[in-house]
Amino acid sequence: MFTVFRGARQRRAVLVDAIRSRLWPVPAIGVVLAVALGVALPELDTAADEHMPETLAGYLFGGGADGAREVLAAVATSLMTVTSLTFSLTLVTLQLASSQYSPRLLRTFASDPFVQRTLALFLATFAYALTVLRTIRNATDDSAAFVPRISVTFAYLLATASVLGLVLFLGHLVRQIRIETMLDHVSADVLDTVCRTAAPLDEEVASVPRLPRIPGHVIVAETSGFLTQIDEEDLLAAASEADALVSLDRPVGSGIVANVPIAFCWPAADSGELDEDRLASLRKRVAGAVHTGVERTATQDIGYGLRQLTDVAIRALSPGINDPTTAIHALQSCTTVLCEMAGYRLGPRVLSDDDGVARVVLPRPDLPELLDLVCTQPQIYGERDPLVMGGLLVLLRDLAWVVRLPEHRQAVADRCRRLRASIAAQQFDSAERTDLDRLATQVAKALDRHWTPTIA
């Protein structure tokens, strides 16, 4: 039951991410609603014109047909210009983020709801003004003049809201391009993914079964790309119906190639050999439950956010940018995320049927692998900078305080030993080496749980 609930929640998260990560859905919805409103409000004007109270009519548009056309034409023209400006500023921001920080941050900007809603407001105002403009009529011999006063007044209100939205958008954009804001957004996405896909450390989960020693039947990928999503419910149903054990070979986020193995399967212990029909059906359903895309997403990919944070750190350490302060900020964000992850059960995940029989083994990075992801490249590119090496030691020290599993503590100790060896090979002065030795000692003591800070 829990697996089914989690599968439904993950499918909903995939759908929400697919809509949120694209720039056009929210503006498109805004345009459709604006056109519908532009059709409905003139009808309301027609019905309410003769019964309009004078007090209310005094607040509405009071000009003639020509004046209404000028107002609506001015609104439509100005909003098209403002929309072009907004798109231009957004593209410049995306280019800056890509070149200065990491191209993998573009998805974060495209999914910004404030940007999407601002564009929706601008385009909706433009579409509404054009829709209402077609209903205005001058007086002729056959018909009376028609000026939709409520509709024109509402267009004025939308234009005023758009001006305010432009001011807020500029302020929001300035805040969004700050590295601290971007790192905070990425960290929040990582932790949200972990909460949805991993169980807390105190929660009992099925242990990973020992795979049979006999060679398994090969299941190959149907498409190439990044593994973006695994439909766990369909995968479990396929394995249960075939009475088989399926072990995926690639975690979410890895690159896969068509016609290359992505999984292996074996018959259950008491079901005998898989016949050709069951095997063919199982292969088809397993391949169909594995979805690929042209880019990684944070929906089920635990390591993607840490990859983004690490990319910011190593890009800041490149000779062309040379910004170790940004690298330290990125490492601090990695520290926060890893310390939160230490409270969850990572590593391979087992899907069991209603009888508790293990049916599917899903590979997933554990905390030691994620720690290597965060530390390896910053250590390589920043080994000559004592601040960067100190930031890595601070990461290990803080992580050492929260890890509880023996393998996690061993991973922290191993990484600290590698950092010590890298520091020893550098030509730091005595003061810098003393500070780094002190931090390394704090890591060891934090692992022993008896270190307390002393006041110099």
From TrEMBL:
Q: Which keywords does this chain's UniProt record carry?
A: Membrane, Transmembrane, Transmembrane helix
| Pfam families tied to this protein | DUF2254
Claim: Transmembrane helix is one of the keywords in the record: yes
Q: Does the keyword Membrane apply?
A: yes
Transmembrane residue ranges? 21-41, 71-94, 114-133, 153-174
The name this protein goes by in its record: DUF2254 domain-containing protein
